[in-house]
What we know:
The protein is of the alpha+beta class. It has helices spanning 2-9, 13-23, 37-50, 89-108, and strands at 53-56, 61-70, 73-83.
Amino acid sequence: TATGRLLMAHFTTKELDALINAVGLPSKKVWPDAETKIGLDMELSKIRKEEFVKLVSVYHTVGFAVPIFKDKKVIAALSVFVPESRYTDSHKGKIAKLIRKAAKQITSRL
């Protein structure tokens, strides 16, 4: 999910290694470009840099996620999901702007 990827991007090395040991790396079908450790690290680095994830799932939903911080550490994610049938490209910018604003408001109150 968008939320899962965003949170995973902020795992410690120990947490990420434990997850990989428990469930393995994502398949190419689930997460193209993340099926190797190097690929996964690169994808997670992009997420940390952008502080934003958009993902179209196999369940026909489009998910968006942004981080919520406390003491400069990601403690949660704020997510929005839209049915793929109702999603248009113009939604991405609007949704991204609004959930980033909401996440900053939540962060500022923690």
